[in-house]
Amino acid sequence: MTDIFEAPADAEARRAVRPVVCYPNETLPAPDLTLFQQARLGAVKTGEVLAQPREAACFEVPAGHFFRISSVEGPQVGDLNLWNRKDLSERFYSGKTRALHGTHITTGERMWSSFPHLRPMATITADTLGWYGIDDFGGSVHDVIGTRCDPYTGNLLAGSQYHHCCHSNLTRALAEHLGMSRAEAEPHVHDVLNVFMCTGFTRDTGQYFMKASPVRPGDYLEFFAEIDILGALSACPGGDCSAEHSSDTAACHPLLIEIFAPAAGALKGWQSPQRNGYDGSHGQP
Ligand SMILES: [Zn+2]
């Protein structure tokens, strides 16, 4: 884009102003990671679900249990949606999670829910890709900046009719799991946590980029469910997202979801978080 306005004389001085973090998060309620990780040691597996390549699968996790998403067979990226099992209107809020924790999340950080709830839905308790950090391109893993690949954007940019984007996979999986029509299910699908995806913004143009995920079979991301969760995970048609998505071109692999129940009494002192304390009046009686 070009525009007609010239930079002012003090342009450099204005650019040199130091940034301020929007939401200093020292006052965020901190999870008791030690308690969770101790509880995980004695937990037993209660079930598993496999998201097939270019498909999605739903799973349910009771509050106080754990779920693990693993790479199996080959490098693969997953698009994750979470809902309150008892109330689909409470769902993962990617934008606010990004504002609170940053562009990518890892161990100790949380997936926050939509207004008026704004509470932790799940806390990351283990991340085998935590070593990756931020690479020289500004890329990192497990982003909350992308949305989910979808057939509408594909149609906008390329006139395509592709049916196995994560948006469609999540829609079909949710519809099937809850016995809804696809039309009923679709509005519940929302912006995702991009599990294992390696992304950032280009420094020169500010564009969203992806690169081959560093994930390998055996890698996993594990969560503690803070409330009763209904989840859906799509094995993205982009595979490891090294080249393209929204097509059947990329090599694609399944993703494994496993659920674990802690031993009785292992979460002593923990309580499922209450919904946000704002009174909801918006200043009017
Ligand atoms: Zn996708």
Automatic annotation (TrEMBL):
Domain DUF1989, chain residue ranges per copy: 52-230
Protein name, as recorded: DUF1989 domain-containing protein
Any Pfam family hit: DUF1989
InterPro entries xref list: DUF1989 (IPR018959)
Annotated organism of origin: Leisingera methylohalidivorans DSM 14336
PANTHER family hit by this protein: RE64534P (PTHR31527)
